[in-house]
Amino acid sequence: MTTSTPATREQAVEADRLDPLARYRDDFLIDAGGPIYLDGNSLGRQPRAAFAALAALLDEWGRDLVGAWERWVELPAVVGDRVGCLVGAAPGQVVVSDSTTVNLYKLAVAATDAKVDRPVIVGDANDFPTVRYVLQGVAERHGRKLRLVHRGAAAGVDAGAVAEAVGDDVGLVCLSAVNFRSGAVVDMAAVNQVAHQFGALTLWDLSHAAGVVPVELDTGGADLAVGCGYKYLNGGPGAPAWLYVRTALQRALRQPIWGWWGQRDQFEMAAAYEPLPTAGRFLTGTPAVLGIAALDAGIAPLLDAGLPALWEKTRRLVGLLVDRAEKLLIPLGATNASPADPARRGGHVAISHPDAWAATRALIDRHLVVPDFRPPDVIRLAPVAVYTSYAEVWDAVERIAGVLADPAIRLPAPKKRIT
Amino acid sequence: MTTSTPATREQAVEADRLDPLARYRDDFLIDAGGPIYLDGNSLGRQPRAAFAALAALLDEWGRDLVGAWERWVELPAVVGDRVGCLVGAAPGQVVVSDSTTVNLYKLAVAATDAKVDRPVIVGDANDFPTVRYVLQGVAERHGRKLRLVHRGAAAGVDAGAVAEAVGDDVGLVCLSAVNFRSGAVVDMAAVNQVAHQFGALTLWDLSHAAGVVPVELDTGGADLAVGCGYKYLNGGPGAPAWLYVRTALQRALRQPIWGWWGQRDQFEMAAAYEPLPTAGRFLTGTPAVLGIAALDAGIAPLLDAGLPALWEKTRRLVGLLVDRAEKLLIPLGATNASPADPARRGGHVAISHPDAWAATRALIDRHLVVPDFRPPDVIRLAPVAVYTSYAEVWDAVERIAGVLADPAIRLPAPKKRIT
Prior knowledge:
2 copies of one chain form a homodimer. In chain A, helix 2 runs antiparallel to helix 10 (about 290-305) and helix 7 (about 160-165) runs parallel beside helix 8. Chain A has 2 domains: about 10-45 and about 305-405, Aspartate Aminotransferase, domain 1, CATH 3.90.1150.10; about 50-300, 3-Layer(aba) Sandwich (Aspartate Aminotransferase, domain 2), CATH 3.40.640. Chain A has a 7-stranded mixed sheet, sandwiched between helices. A 4-stranded antiparallel sheet of chain A has the order 9-10-13-12, with helices on one face. Chain A has a two-stranded parallel ribbon with strand order 1-11. Chain A is globular, with a radius of gyration of 22 Å. Chain A is α/β, with parallel strands linked by helices. Chain A has 13 helices and 13 strands. Chain A has helices spanning about 10-20, 50-65, 70, 75-85, 100-115, 130-140, 160-165, 190-195, 245-250, 290-305, 305-330, 355-365, 390-405; strands at about 35, 95, 120-125, 145-150, 170-175, 200-205, 225, 240-245, 335, 350, 370, 370-375, 380. The interface between A and B is large, with 78 and 78 residues.
């Protein structure tokens, strides 16, 4: 099997023929005549198994009613451990819980509380909004100071930038492992090392990393992490999120939302809150059982394929995308807003262009490609190893070039019909 | 139509025949040969429409993918307004969001932040665990003091008890409208009045009240409220919860979890967090779309029946249950642990008995009745207006009496089989 970048459409088709992951495409609902979907890093495609998983869950609810909780009660930890397999976490450290935002909040407060004499949180000025907002809120309410690293999304944060920002006054370094905009990948182990040298904890948002790029939470020395369930994990819209707390830290950290699902001997309903000694103490209220069932169906193909194979194909898809974009889109005024160094690229690519918004609308309205627009000028493109083909990447870039070359997209938008 | 309490099984059957709500029973999945389900206040039965609602949602996800967010983005407010119809809240004040625990936390912190010079939170010593734990956590982390009203679950908190506890040092009064254990109902309007006289805000947990007892958030003067989706609202296991913030308070209050779903012009992804000027500012992360779809199916029969009819039938069912329990269970050593005054009873009844745990296990194991056990000695029974019949209540009490009279239930439990 050749691993070189396809140079013709025929070679792209041949790469699909030889692709060991091609069979997973059938695990997902795909309209053969539909647009090419390159937004799986915003909302993953639907695994065919989601329907059966939800139907089975409804069966349980209908038949066993409240008695089914004997099984459901374990789901946050059971499915958490499965997510853990994708991010290098041994069992007992990941639980499915709440949303990414709420999990970030819980862990950021827990970490800053544990480092009470270190008032500074280091974050990334170009991080995803919810990460920045959560840290702003924690800083403002708890008398902390937020120190933002400014490196530009395309360059991305690296350990050197963190080393410049971190000091004895820093209690927490909170970053995304893959930038939501540029796809720039951070060397997590190097950042963990730098942070630990100064006595700070690390908290990672893996929403754009889990299930795509290699992540080794345990061996890489990460302290805390969170991630969403609806992107590469294919859990569906608003799927529950997950969180990771290293075993050694579980008893030392306390989260701020004291709910009955974090309580030891929960159904004893004791007077005083006494959190579980496990990762379960980071749960809050009743977990979203329907959502967890769909999430479990969403990660099954990833666990089956295995991360090394997923990452190998992702790199080739991204390589092809960048290669074709340089040939077809740069001449049309586009810029590659992702890292120039292939070794720093994650699972998606950012193409900036002055007409990015108009082109995104036209690509969607004409049923050509579903990309993602990120203000002010980025078209974000994510091929996904389990369901995107090399030929789709090839064709998508041609379609994007066709739209960027079409002066009609720059005409004023027609008035919205009131129907 | 007679509204007297049935005195014979024949009269119970006749009451079912005349029951204007009887037709809603067919809207729910019910195994005709199964046990009598009296735990709808822990997990509501499954509406038949839940399957179709989830299938439609999966269709949207499969077909429209990320484009479906144009509709989904409105769901927290749209379904929130529908929940609002059940609790006397005009549109624009209820959003579906997170879990009850997380919503309690957000609103409790928002309220205590707004009353920074009033260090005391008034709560109920007999409230549901998560309410007590959340308040403990808020008190501990934010230097507040928790002042608990002790009245016993059966008596329940009343405005008089609150008046004794409240003073100029109190910023927040947080109570459940219906006690999770005894079913005792609080006069919300009277408590709101007392709290406001002293300048405190009120926060209500309506998990055991919404969809059952009359609740008038707007006209009753409540400030804040939360409730779960999986009990009387029939949203399924771990259904998303909801929260209410009175319009006049929405701009004045800020919640602590600063996420992108609470942000003004969310998709502009601005640098600084600036919350929406609406109830939307109390959202956090991406809402659980699958769960909201199921919740919407769960409340549809309640909205169709209307709360006055639901409450009227609930009172008759509860009256029959208490009447039969007094005749059959009290002689067997049971005590009515719910309010003696019918006017203070909510939608469920607590029967205490030294063998409550053994009886609960026997009732479930023998497929007779599904009640709920609440430590140390309470059998909790909830007939639900949309799917419980008078005959079921009649038969359930007979079955409970049979089990309590059976000495075999007091034998040591057989060893669990390891399968």
